[in-house]
Amino acid sequence: MRPLRALLAVLLAAPLLADLExxxxxxxxxxxxxxxxTPSAVREKRVQxxxxxxxxxxxxxxxxxxxxxxxxxxxxLAAHRGxxxxxxxxxxxxxxxxxxxxxxxxxxxxxxxxxxxxxxAVPLDRLEKEFGVRPRTAIVNDVPSVPEAxxxxxxxxxxxxxxxxxxxxxxxxxxxxxxxxxxxWESAGGNRLLVLIDPDSYTAxxxxxxxxxDCARFFNGKEFPRDRGPIExxxxxxxxxxxxxxxxxxxxxxxxxxxxxxxxxAKKLPGFARQWNAAGKAPRVVVATxxxxxxxxxxxxxxxxxxxxGEWGGDWDSGRAACLVWTWRLRKAxxxxxxxxxxxxxxxxxxxxxxxxxxxxGWPGMFTEAQTRDHARECxxxxxxxxxxxxxxxxxxxxxxxxxxxxxxxxxxxxxxxxADVDRPARLRAxxxxxxxxxxxxxxxxxxPIEWGVEDSRLxxxxxxxxxKLSDEDGAGVAVVxxxxxxxxxxxxxxxxxxxxxxxxxxxxxxGPPPFVVAAGEMAVLGLPKxxxxxxxxLFSWTVIADKxxxxxxWLQGLVLRQSTLCVLKGGEKKTLPFEELYPGEPSTLSIExxxxxxx
Length: 600
Prior knowledge:
The chain has 600 residues and is of the alpha/beta class. It has 17 helices and 23 strands.
């Protein structure tokens, strides 16, 4: 009996395999308007890639292509205006569901534009009017979180599904229940999107599942040795990844994409799928559009699909602290959009939300010196066009208006219950950029003075920083933070964007708050004797850190800026470039202001 009991114990401990019938492989090319090259070079390449996808679809009836962002489609359409035959071919493939355009314009930094996310759906009316299709699936890749406001914004435009290939490399892992299984994400306003999040990102098909084998062996040779054949490679990946799925699921969608790549891998997918299916292997592999997967899920699972609620956030939006004044201008221009605002203006604003659209030296090792300079200038040109279209030429060089802080005087009793140091209510520190906290704990203080004034319910902090004098030692980036000492145990403090009802109620999609909160415009600080409201035109990323010397104190830390003028160029060379070339349009002398108000 003992061997039988041992065998039973092993079987009970083993993970249940999903009763998986179909793997939907969703091919495309991840859209970074920047990152891999300058925006103009990316645009040119992506137009050619979309043309290649048309040709491939005409050559192979099983070929599919999912264009993540409609920015590429707009660029393609501009390049082919007047070519009726080519546009007709595109129209036919879109209507047949063999080519697909995602419902969002780009992969966005969305949490810093919470009031303006309807701009992401700008192409839907044009696609419906000119091509007879209206996509219902948004594909948001790379960025590991988006705000709850995106549910309301997209649902209002008829979007029903959201596919997320999240890059979790710099972000705490998501709870298991959010990964690889569909759920309805319901907003506080009652709107819903059917969501699938893949924590293995948009490369999962080949890096994890072994589909296609050629890319699998190239990108992940450790798991997929080169001496294995196609069937053996796919079998190894599929059998391993099935263990990660909910056993109740009969289908899964996995993406086959990489950063601004071409159609080479996607062209091979139909052949590999046919080979696998012809061999009688299970589950069946289908090359498909994202929408085909979601339609299957909704049809087969129906009311068994779980409903989840809560704010998600904006884990990567802090990157916009590299161009914080431009971001302030863009937010202002986006909020000025009206129902009759021309398409070109709305599209120009939408593209500036892209997660790769920022200033600075670029990702270390990616750009030559010429690309570095061109990338910064082109991004600034995009920003300028969007602001000029939305607010006019006079707003292009504008900075947030300065306000006169309250006069200094006796500190009211209410503030003595809030501030741990009423004589020095703020400090500035600068150090290597980090993620929640935004600088390491040993980062030194800046000698830059902070002016402040306080009255019954309002504390105003203001200072001026010379960005041109900031430098870092290794090209990893320097950050400046503003910190306010709070008389509270850091474990009881909660931060929430004031505009997010779910976050204000402490409801987060991931089960708890993220390491830092993105709150464009206004944030609430909860857990103190009195609720605080924090406002700043340009600071939008906040966290709370413990005081090293006193566990009864905490620091409210706001990310003022991040930058680097020491660029790590392609090939490893390091070179310092002028601030004005890397951050064109950003004022080198930066004036900041933060207002903290006691509400109750």
